[in-house]
Amino acid sequence: MDARCWHKDGREMLAQGWTGDAGTRMDARCWHKDGREMLAQGWTGDAGTRMDARCWHKDGREMLAQGWTGDAGTRMDARCWHKDGREMLAQGWTGDAGTRRDGRVHDEYRLKGRKGRTGLKG
User: Fold this and answer.
1) Where are the alpha helices (DSSP H) in 9-118?
2) b/e map of 19-52 (b: 16 or more CB within 10 Å)?
3) What percentage of the chain's residues is helix, strand, coil (to nearest 5)?
4) 47: pLDDT confidence band, cut at 50, 70 and 90?
5) CA separation (Å) from 43 to 9, 54, 71, 121, 122?
6) How far apart are CA 67 and CA 117, in angstroms?
């Protein structure tokens, strides 16, 4: 995916944001693949619409995007949660319930068993 955030230690998290403490976040910002700005507490969809989606790392920390890396190029498959509880992929955020953009609902990828697209349960 094109949206990237950089961690202070060089990993793909936003340098000026996350502290790494569980549930702690600052005014970190992310950039959508097409250049639109996304905020940690309210992803922006088309025309700047807030979608109030949040992403959760497998260990409970809030993340800004799917496909975070522990090492360069290595996906950790963090799950993303839509405001109504459905799991979504970063490449398919929804502005309205049930709508898709460039991706698919998480569970559909899981059922198809596509490597690198399945989230971690629990």
Assistant:
1) 106-112
2) eeeeeebeebebbbeeeeebebeebbbeeeeebe
3) 10, 20, 70
4) very low
5) 24, 8, 25, 23, 23
6) 9
- Check if the beta carbon of residue 94 is closer than 8 Å to that of residue 88: yes
Using CA atoms, how far apart are residues 18 and 48, in angstroms rounded to an integer? 23
Of the two residues 5 and 1, the one the predictor is more confident about is 5
pLDDT digits (tens, 9 = 90+) for 4-20: 444 333 344 433 333 33
As a whole number of angstroms, the distance between CA 25 and CA 17 comes to 7
Burial of 67: CB neighbours in 10 Å, binned 0-12, 13-18, 19+? buried
CA atoms within 13 A on the CB side of 18: 25
Q: Give the integer Cα–Cα distance in Å for 115 and 52.
A: 27
Structure tokens at 114: 């596509």
- 54 forms beta bridges with 81
